[in-house]
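User: My collaborator sent over this chain with a note saying "see what the structure looks like." That's all I know about it. Can you take a look?
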Amino acid sequence: MTEPRRRTAILISGRGSNMAALLAAAAAPAFPAEIVLVFANRTDAAGLDTARAAGIEAAALSHRAYPGREDFDRAVDAELRARNVDLVCLAGFMRVVSPWFCERWLGRMISIHPALLPSFKGLDTHARALDAGVKIHGASVHFVVPELDAGPIIAQAAVPVLEDDTPDSLAARVLRQEHVIYPRALQLVASGRVRLEAGRTVSEARTSADVALAVPDA
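Assistant: Without extra context I'll predict from the sequence alone. Here is the result:
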């Protein structure tokens, strides 16, 4: 008997390029996650129209209408639960979610960060990587925990840092790999092959089909 697809929401703030990659992957009937909602904290987020064009329900609430971070997060939680959401993907969601929301969705919420965690947590990762002189940079998908960018890692992609790189050129190279590993990470979590357990990422299998590291040629 085929396992039911996990009902998944994507949270965005802008154009949602990673959202588009997730939507494309989930369009395959065999993909273990079904995108049932794209939600934004900005009513003018461009990604909402992208979702609607793909036939996905899109909704938004402005965080500015709420007195505090947790108040907004509780409203978001109500939207998710009204649609029986199982999993949450943060994809360019430019909000630090409250500890309450993290605990509510612990083990069921993942995010992508444009750096090889635990290095370069926070903002301006590409410029900071260049300033640090690293030779390898990349992206990480991780479970969301209350501490920013500190959740257990699910998947990573590494790219070389080139001598003539700028923050923009490096960001573009990393973004292409984000679009590869984020759908892969969602597939692993939605299928149950990867889970959060006792503060660690636990994998049920380590086969060639479960590779969670992408290293492009260039």
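A starting point for your reply to your collaborator: Residues 1 and 9 are 25 Å apart (CA to CA).
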